[in-house]
Amino acid sequence: MVGIAVGMLTDGQNLNFAVPIDILAELLSQRPQRTLELGSLLEEVKGLQVQQSEEKFSSETDSPYQKKQTELETLLNNGVGEAGGNADDLLKVAHVAENINVDIATVAARRAADVRPSPDAYLLLANLLNAKYA
C-alpha cells in the first residue's frame, strides 16, 4: 500500500497516519470540476446583478430588489465555500462580491491571504476594509 502521510502522534513511536494514494488521486481529479462549478456560480451572480439593476431600489425585505440581494449574497457565500482553500478562486469571489456585499468580499479576501499570502490578496483586503470603515 502506498499512502501520503497526513499526521503523526508525537508521543507514538513510529506511529503515522496516511491516506491511501488512490483516494488522494480521486480527490485531486475532482479539483477542476470545482473550478467549473465556481465559474458557473459566478456567472449566475453576474446575471442576477443585471436583473437586480433593472429593479427599483427598495429597503423593504419582501421587495424584488431585496429578494435578489439576498439571493446574490447566498450565491456568494456558496462561492466562498466552493473556493475552499484555493487562493485564486477566493480572490475571484472577493472581486465579484466587492460591489455586492463588502463583508462577504472581506471574508474571501482574508481567507485568500491566509491560504497564500500575496500582494494582490493584501491589497484587495486593504481596499475592502477601507471601503467598509472609511
Question: What structural keywords apply?
Answer:
single chain, 134 residues, mainly alpha, Serine Threonine Protein Phosphatase 5, Tetratricopeptide repeat, two-stranded antiparallel ribbon, 6 helices, 2 strands, 8% strand
Mean pLDDT: 87
| C-alpha Rg (nearest Å) | 20 Å
Low-confidence stretches: none
Largest sheet: 2 strands, antiparallel
Proportion of beta-strand residues? 5-15%
What is the succession of H and E elements? Answer: EEHHHHHH
Please indicate the count of domains.
1
- How many individual β-strands? 2
Describe this structure in words.
Strands 1-2 form a two-stranded antiparallel ribbon. 69% of the residues lie in helices and 8% in strands. It is built from six helices and two strands; from the N terminus they run ββαααααα. α4 packs antiparallel against α5 and α5 packs antiparallel against α6. The longest helix has 23 residues. With 134 residues, it is mainly alpha-helical. A hairpin with a 7-residue loop joins β1 and β2. It has one domain: Serine Threonine Protein Phosphatase 5, Tetratricopeptide repeat, CATH 1.25.40.
Structural topology:
Layout: E1 3-8, E2 16-20, H1 21-29, H2 31-53, H3 64-83, H4 87-97, H5 102-115, H6 119-133
Antiparallel strand pairs: 1-2
Helix pairs in contact: 2-3, 3-4, 3-5, 4-5, 5-6
Short summary of the structure?
Helix content is 69%, strand content 8%.
